[in-house]
Amino acid sequence: xxxxxxxxxxxxxxxxxxxxxxxxxxxxxxxxxKRTLTIAVREGVESVALKKVAQRFxxxxxxxxxxxxxxxxxxxxxxxxxxxxxxxxFDVLMVDDPWMPALLITEKEKDSGQQQYGLKEVQRDTYExxxxxxxxxxxxxxxxxxxxxxxxxxxxxVPYVGNSQLFCYRTDVPNAARVAQSWEQIRARxxxxxxxxGYVARIGPNNSIVTDFMPILWSxxxxxxxxxxxxxxxxxxxxxxxxxxLSMAELVQNEKSSSVSVDDFDVAAYLATxxxxxxxxxxxxxxxxxxxxxxxxxSTIHCDAMPGGKQELGAWLLSIPNTAxxxxxxxxxIRYATSREQLMIATIDGNPPPxxxxxxxxxxxxxxxxxxxxxxxEEGNTPQQQSTECLPGDSDGKKYQECMNAxxxxxxxxxxxxxxxEYRSLTxxxxxxxxxxxxEMENILTQHLEPLILSNYKGEPLRKKALDxxxxxxxxxxxxxxxxxxTSLQGxxxxxxxxxxx
Length: 502
Description:
There is one protein chain. By secondary structure, the protein is an alpha+beta fold. It has 3 domains: 11-162 and 314-352, Periplasmic binding protein-like II (D-Maltodextrin-Binding Protein, domain 2, 3-Layer(aba) Sandwich); 165-312 and 437-484, Periplasmic binding protein-like II (D-Maltodextrin-Binding Protein, domain 2, 3-Layer(aba) Sandwich), CATH 3.40.190.10; 364-416, no CATH class. The protein contains 21 helices and 10 strands. The chain has a 5-stranded mixed beta sheet with strand order 2-1-3-10-6. Strands 8-7-9 form a 3-stranded antiparallel beta sheet, covered by helices on one side. α9 packs across α19 and α13 packs across α17. The radius of gyration is 27 Å and the shape is globular.
């Protein structure tokens, strides 16, 4: 059949229109901004592995990921602003566990008293993948929220960093803190140091100083800082709490004025250089110290349980703002990042595992030491290289699995018995009070601790000053406990009573 000239012309115009439409769509699509998954993280050792996870996720899933880093205090302020906004600029937040109540429970209007959730509940298969609900214990409790009258199975974040406290000391320093059972022993041994600081404390404001003080306080006064609003005092025993204030003050006064520790970096640096012989170290920094030691070919820093056994839980969570633009992709990222496989790879990059199963596996060597070196030689990689070599995209799936199977041996060789110490610390650590106003409570403690530990009270008994500081702090803290407690956070009252009885 022959087409008329007019029909041919019409067909030609139609095809031309389709062609232009295709070109136009492509041009417009090219001009449209790509959807980017944006993650807010802490600037520091705690986020080194997470940034690499984000890169692997982007390559494997084809989703553009942007990571923005903030200092500790700035990160909290930024996240608090984002969860209260109509449209969050971040899709995933790296959340320190004591921040969760403040980020979760927000007010719709300043004076309305009506509450809304600032964080999105993560899907059950995200939190429960690979037995996560049990494998993250005890950290799973700090990510939970529920009404007081119901069972608590709602989670608003997934643990990524199992960052509980360790007590680290140098084994090459005489009279160091080997198997110290109490803070009295720490003080005594610290005063015996002549060429080093002995114990080095954080005395930077807010989180830094309170980080050191909480295990000391709980060691003397286990009932301190209850979380239920019916509490009549912020401290269980005034005498015990005063002793904790005194202990902190005396430890700091033993430090030389030319060497002041402000934050985590300072503590790690003093231990690494031998300027101090002992101090409290978060697990992420303990792993960084282990890497430094291995690079030097030395093994002089040992980390173990806290004197008094009252270490502080530190769990960095991955959460999603309720107003995030890419919630599905954020959920996919969290599910990927907190999988057992990715957390094992992240451990190579210095991330303390939040999964108990990983710590158990790494705590006991199932491969002879001679075989560890053989495996490393066969693979031809250092442990650091493994984190980028072990990618599912390898053409040979068997090679990838062999690479993954070799990681535990590499990690045991790299970190030695550190994982056993992390396991003991993480499974017995105590979370900080779960209050919407915990940051304000930290500020109150700082305001009364700083003058006590940094000033010389000539002619005045230090105990009297400690008692005055305690009573002033108690008045302000008690008010915060009553007005800011979130009683529907999981096990709030029950947990407080249980911890107080220990």
